Amino acid sequence: PASELQTLATYAREYFSRGTHNNGAFLPWHRGLLLDVENTLRQQDCRITVPYWDWSRHPEVATSSFWGDDDDQFSGDGHPTTRCVETGLFGPSYILTNGLCLRRDLRSGSAADNASIQSQLFDRYPDPSQYDSFRNRLEHGPGLHDSVHCIVGGTMCSARAAEDPVFHLHHANVDRIWSEWQDQSTA
After folding, report:
1. Are the beta carbons of 156 and 150 closer than 8 angstroms?
2. Axis-axis angle for helices 2-14, 26-42 (nearest 10)
3. Distance in angstroms (rounded) separating the CA atoms of residues 151 and 53
4. CA-CA distances (angstroms) from residue 117 to 53, 75, 175?
5. H-type helices in the chain, by residue range?
6. Which residues, in sequence order, are CB contacts of 45 under 8 Å at separation 6+?
7. Residue 74: exposure state from Cβ atoms within 10 A (0-12, 13-18, ≥19)
8. What is the pLDDT along the chain (187 residues), one digit of tens a residue?
9. Is 63 in contact with 176 (CB distance < 8 Å)?
10. Strand partners for 70
């Protein structure tokens, strides 16, 4: 239901700089938001899940087959001048809560690959007592959360990021990484 999803996107925007980042709440808050989005979608079809976008499999984000106009893709880059997405499922008919277009500005930066995730996160912070260091690195480390937001650019690199459908798949991947980190300890 559009209005319920819009409410969740507005909620994410309102709390963007008021406690959902740069502290221990970052990972559980976003996990809760994903669950709310998934449960809202399941009201329409109980088979729906929010999948994760594993950008570590193709770290050169801008050239990934993830982008495109087919039904299983997430549209593509924005217009060179306006940055508005003009084609695909999230093209002109997809309007943000402020009435403007979805914007993208795919950049040449790289997301972290699996080896980098292993060395930056799992090897460096193996103990549950290192949660805050792990969380900080996952949130801000090179090629990780923040980087991917701004490699996609446009709406994803703004306080309105939750209005880009890619946001949810990106955060589902961040949550997957956190879950794998949690599973490496019996504590």
Report:
1. yes
2. 170
3. 14
4. 15, 27, 13
5. 2-14, 26-42, 114-117, 131-140, 145-152, 166-183
6. none
7. buried
8. 568 888 888 878 887 777 789 999 999 999 999 999 999 999 999 999 999 999 999 999 999 999 999 999 999 999 999 999 999 999 999 999 999 999 999 998 999 999 999 999 999 999 999 999 999 999 999 999 999 999 999 999 999 999 999 999 999 999 999 999 999 988 8
9. no
10. none
pTM check: above 0.70 = yes
- Under DSSP, the state recorded for 131 is H
67 vs 72: CA distance, rounded Å: 9
Q: Rg of the chain's alpha carbons, rounded to an integer?
A: 16
